[in-house]
Amino acid sequence: MRLTPAGELTRRITALQKLLQQKGVDGALIMDNVDMFYFAGTAQRAYLFVPAEGRPLLMVKKSFTRARGESALQEIIPLANVKDLTKMLYAYGYNKITTLGLELDVLPAALYLLFQKLFEGAQIVDISGLIRSVRMVKSFYELEVLRDAAQLNYTLFSRAKDYLREGITELELAGQLEMVYRLAGHSGTVRMRGFDQEVYFGHILSGANAAIPSYMESATGGPGVSMSFPQGAGYKIIARNEPVMIDYVGVLDGYMADQTRIYCIGQLPDKLVHAHETALLIQEAVKQMAVPGALCEDIYRHAMNMAAESGYGEHFMGYSEPVPFIGHGIGLELNEWPVLTSGFKTPLEKNMVIALEPKFIFPEGAVGIENTFVVGEKGLETLTLFDENIIYLR
């Protein structure tokens, strides 16, 4: 297991402090597990106060011992009761907080109301956008971890042929491949930002199951095994001459690599083969177009036009209920910024990491591709390496 270096934490906190100063926010109180890990290097139950100027203070509810061993921050103290939080801040000289930033995109309402009382008189503002902006551009350290996560995926997709056979159920195939993941170090958790957005490893879907939509913001859904979690692999038996989509997320030391490949026992119809080839062409066009300075919405519009011109536009990024994007940022969460969609005007920057997923969904199955890329000087550089063509098994 990696420990986040002190210099890395300092870089991240300094970047956030610059944004806090620009927005006139006295300090940010961070509680979300992912944000906590990003800025403190630990995911223990704690409260991280990042002042606009000065040292951050990590107040730990549980486990203080682990937080001390995992975080490279200098100021780490135990916190017996959250109601003592303001007293702790005052004791460290932070007694003039007139504007407090909170992660309002993920913070439960009960905690929001509590902090209104604890910081009576202070204005509470949303700093979730500032945090997500800092996290958009990855450091050299983060890219190294992401490359290792991508290697986890290479292992999984290489082993798929060992387990995929006619007559196996989607669920059984999922169990076998998830074992491969876990033995290679996958944490077992794929984190997403947003209320009730969740996924378990990813989606393994065969034939018509890939056309079943779900509540998740994804081009595919699938039936799942229960109405309580209606997505992903189900009990369907995998047959010959149908596409088997493996869309899985490798996670190592918190960082994610998203990847999709299409397998088939036998041979796919010409229509699906041509649609898959179109997805590869769209991917290649986006790779060249996505240079630093390019606008996300321009890239999205170009991909949508290519899909429409192919004749399969109505099947692009979903069948009955398509999603309005072709790619998304990825790192510690599956759905980070930037997003390749209409209205997202943020220009790309070097070392942003994006999962690009041009897919076509038909009633008889799904084809397409997904890879995780880093934005380089000349376009997208691939992190997730594996055969991109339809992988046929006999």
| Residues in β-strands, percent | 15-25%
CATH level-4 homologous superfamily of the largest domain: Creatinase/methionine aminopeptidase superfamily
Q: Strand arrangement, largest sheet?
A: 4-3-2-1-5-6
Total helix count? Answer: 10
Number of domains: 2
- CATH architecture tag of the largest domain: Alpha-Beta Complex
Low-pLDDT stretches are none
CATH topology of the largest domain: Creatine Amidinohydrolase
End-to-end separation: 40 Å
Q: Average pLDDT, to the nearest integer?
A: 97
Shape: elongated
Question: For the CA atoms, what is the radius of gyration?
Answer: 22 Å
The H/E string reads HEHEEHEHEHEHHHEEEHHEEEEEEEE
Could you please describe the fold and organization of this structure?
The structure is a single chain. The protein has 394 residues and is an alpha+beta fold. It folds into 2 domains: 6-135, 3-Layer(aba) Sandwich (Creatine Amidinohydrolase, Chain A, domain 1), CATH 3.40.350.10; 137-393, Creatinase/methionine aminopeptidase superfamily (Creatine Amidinohydrolase). It contains 10 helices and 17 strands. The protein has a 6-stranded mixed beta sheet with strand order 4-3-2-1-5-6, with helices on both faces. Strands 11-10-12-15-16 form a 5-stranded antiparallel beta sheet. It has a 4-stranded mixed beta sheet with strand order 7-8-9-17. α1 (6-23) packs across α6 (128-136) and α9 (270-289) runs antiparallel to α10 (296-309).
Gist?
By secondary structure, the chain is an alpha+beta fold.
List the helices and strands and how they pair.
Blueprint: H1 6-23, E1 27-30, H2 33-40, E2 45-51, E3 57-62, H3 64-70, E4 76-78, H4 85-91, E5 99-102, H5 109-118, E6 123-126, H6 128-136, H7 140-163, H8 170-183, E7 202-206, E8 244-252, E9 255-265, H9 270-289, H10 296-309, E10 325-329, E11 336-341, E12 353-356, E13 359-362, E14 365-368, E15 371-376, E16 379-382, E17 391-393
Parallel strand pairs: 1-5, 3-4, 5-6, 9-17
Antiparallel strand pairs: 1-2, 2-3, 7-8, 8-9, 10-11, 10-12, 12-15, 13-14, 15-16
Helix pairs in contact: 1-6, 7-8, 9-10
